[in-house]
Design goal:
single chain; mainly alpha; 6 helices; 44% helix; 0% strand
């Protein structure tokens, strides 16, 4: 991850995907100035379509605090890239799910109110009474 943090590859990645969305790149300077590169990357991928919830915090990468979240962001960027028709590159991670909007009639909603789901503990009368699994444990002195 050291390489990813300091060689500006994250900036060239999003510039390649989103058509030079980051105009100003800081190649040297104080830590604050260099962290602005990471912030520019975060803003660019959000404009590209990566949900804000999937974007790591700047200190996660800069101080290597939460590399798992940085990896999550890279996978989120891969999922988002697949939704852009102009993207013809390799696939990273699963495809972003499509919306599956369901519309129920009033009668269907009413019928659902009277049904007990199996998650509520209802087993339709089935029980384990009378069942034995293996030999009983005998405790003797």
């Amino acid at each position: 991850m050291e390489l990813f943090a300091f060689d500006l590859s994250h900036l060239s990645l999003i510039n390649h995907l989103a058509g030079h969305s980051i105009k100003k790149v800081h190649h040297k300077g104080s830590a604050f100035v260099l962290m602005q590169n990471i912030e520019a990357f975060q803003n660019a991928i959000q404009k590209y379509g990566v949900p804000k919830e999937d974007v790591f915090q700047t200190v996660d990468l800069w101080e290597k605090r939460n590399i798992g979240q940085v990896t999550q962001t890279i996978f989120a960027l891969g999922r988002t890239a697949q939704t852009h028709p102009e993207f013809k590159g390799p696939i990273l991670g699963p495809k972003l799910s499509d919306k599956n909007i369901r519309e129920f009639t009033e009668a269907q909603l009413k019928a659902g109110e009277t049904t007990l789901g199996l998650q509520a503990g209802y087993t339709k009368g089935a029980s384990q009474s009378g069942m034995s699994f293996g030999k009983g444990r005998k405790i003797t002195d």
